[in-house]
Structure prediction request, 151 residues.
Amino acid sequence: MKINIYQLPHAMGLPLPDRATPNSAGMDLRAALPEGELVVLLPGDRFLIPTGIVMAIPEGYEGQVRPRSGLALKHGVTVLNSPGTIDADYRNEVGVLLVNHGQAPFEIKRGDRIAQLLIAPVPECSWSRVKSADKLGNTRRGLGGYGSTGV
Prediction:
């Protein structure tokens, strides 16, 4: 699938989203901060990091912005609204809302890989109203709510 992408002036020189390995599911998104500028996320802080890219995701698809597992494990830094959704009709700069759940300040500089992007299909669906919950069918879980399947 080819997706049209535009790099804003503040992202020039940075790579487009790319896979770290041939079998990586996600493409790395990079911080498009000015050269020499740092964003320091103190524990508990959140910040919208610019990526400097605008894209035209095809109709019927979405972009999913997900955390990088290494940042989460090593530093407690993750995507706050994970996964973030980029709708097919969105045509503004992609930003990544990072939060520091760790115990130490975390520095972000130009070109740092801050999140990953997956392009995923969004199926068309419609609702079919039924007259009672009995019409939904039984499952092993039944009416069990949160936590009802155990640990």
User: Anything to note?
Assistant: The mean pLDDT is 94. The two ends are 40 Å apart (CA to CA). The CA atoms of residues 144 and 150 lie 10 Å apart. The helical segments are 69-75.
